[in-house]
User: What shape does this take?
Amino acid sequence: MRALAIVIGVILLFPGACSLLFAVNANASDWRDFSGLWAACFFVSAIGVVMIVLAARRGAGPKRD
Assistant: This one.
């Protein structure tokens, strides 16, 4: 289950990474046109980061036999 959460978290990072690359290469007028879409993509990526962090923290505890 933990591995699945990490995989889904990594997949959720892709929209933010793509929009960040586009934002770096965009000119000033594109920022206003796509600001809502970029905010949504960064929000989705933030959810991915939270999923990865939570999955990593829950797996760091002692092993149960």
Q: What stands out?
A: The chain has one domain: 2-58. The helical segments are 2-25, 28-33, 35-58. The mean pLDDT is 83. Residues 26 and 33 are 11 Å apart (CA to CA).
